[in-house]
Amino acid sequence: MIDTIAALSTAQGPGAIGILRVSGSLVLPISLAVLEKNGTPLTESFIQNQKRSAIFCDFVEKGKPLDQIVFLYFPAPNSYTGEDLAEFHLHGNPILLKRALHVLLEKGARPADKGEFTKRAYLNGKINLSGAEAISRLIEARSKYELELAQKNVFGEITKLSSKIRSDLISLKAECEAEIDFSTEDLTFESLEERKNRMVALKNLCSKLIKDSERAESFILQSTVVLYGEPNTGKSSLMNVLIGKDRSIISDVPGTTRDYIAEELSLDGIPIRLVDTAGIRDTNDTIERMGIERSKREADSANVKLFLIDTSLPFEKKTFIEKHKDRLLGSLIVANKIDTKHPSWQMESVQDFKEEFQLTISEISCKTKQGIPELLELLKSKLTSKDDTEDLVLLEDRQRYHIQKIESCLSEAIQLMENGAPAEIYIQEINVALQEIGQVNGTVENEEILGRIFSKFCVGK
Ligand SMILES: Nc1nc2c(ncn2[C@@H]2O[C@H](COP(=O)(O)OP(=O)(O)OP(=O)(O)O)[C@@H](O)[C@H]2O)c(=O)[nH]1
Ligand SMILES: [Mg+2]
């Protein structure tokens, strides 16, 4: 007898439909107690005959219809959790859904804990741990980029990688065992060297995975967007417009911002660190020069650079290119002050150099806010563009921990081999690495660890 859990599986708040999900041994009796069609309770054989099909019927409380619903019954083991499971698709009114959930609880279900449906799916072998974690990430993803990484993992990227690591470790282990059990006469220097190379390759794969994943995470956690350009182009003004408050001092005196200023904000769910910098110019002022150096460093490490230009000044393409050519390639140029633009600034006349340097140019005015929504769209697409991030894989902290352990086991084994240790000795390291890789996809049985993993989920998942 498996206790029966129930929860709202769709988002809180009004919606066209809201789905209540129930899983466990009592799914069928509970469903029979609340479902009617044309005033007659549904029968068990009717539901059994319509398994995994939509049944249009009424949800009733003590004979009183609450809603017309679509009901789906998934008998074990062919369900998300691997247990008997039912979905009640009601109209998405939060009060109605709360009432209906209450009725299901009265009939014998209990409220599900966070992630309990997925935890049951894992315990019943429906999904591995990496898969479960990927689903959680998929649901919670706050940006298009994070979503893409989560999708890769839902479709088994981590499982694939860990299977490869596992099979390489197994063949290394088998080779070492053969050497221990049988004669070593046939072993040549080349075959040992070849084994070591394979260990090194596997260790490098783990290191790359960890590094890539850290990079992916830094993109997800926070991207840095730097505003840079010559003094007085309106960097601080744009900073204030984007964060919606007067953070940076604005003045018509060039060199107002003397050091970089950073603010954190969220752009449609993409967390960014926005940095206003000191205008870049030649100066004899030591403090300002230090500020410019610091600003350049910020710009170099940014994910996106917004290079501001002042269109109220005469614009001469040749001089501009000469002055800035090192920084132009792939830049996002923000042509500011178009409310008062000089006749020499024309989008048409910069078309050719736009192509040459693969520039994106956005015309804005911090004063009238013209072009700001378009700039924000551009910025968002830059931040979530795949470019050089296409191959990255995202490991959850737990997975990264195990991969790191494998990496250090392999380092140790390589070191031992290089010092002439026999296979009996370094096979220990391979054995530990094998235990670790098992944990990535899940041979985790420890209730506390599982509790920690699934508590990150939302209720109803
Ligand atoms: N007309 C007009 N003036 C602007 C616009 N944006 C900024 N300004 C003015 O340009 C001057 C310089 O603006 P800041 O934002 O301080 O420029 P900055 O690039 O931060 O300058 P530094 O900190 O000195 O490098 C100020 O007088 C602003 O009011 C705009 O869109 N239109
Ligand atoms: Mg400034």
UniProtKB/TrEMBL annotation:
Binds 1 potassium ion per subunit. K(+) binds at N232, S251, V253, T256. Its EC number is 3.6.-.-. The keyword Ion transport does not apply. One of its GO terms (cellular component) is cytosol. Exhibits a very high intrinsic GTPase hydrolysis rate. Involved in the addition of a carboxymethylaminomethyl (cmnm) group at the wobble position (U34) of certain tRNAs, forming tRNA-cmnm(5)s(2)U34. This is tRNA modification GTPase MnmE. The lineage of its organism: Bacteria, Pseudomonadati, Spirochaetota, Spirochaetia, Leptospirales.
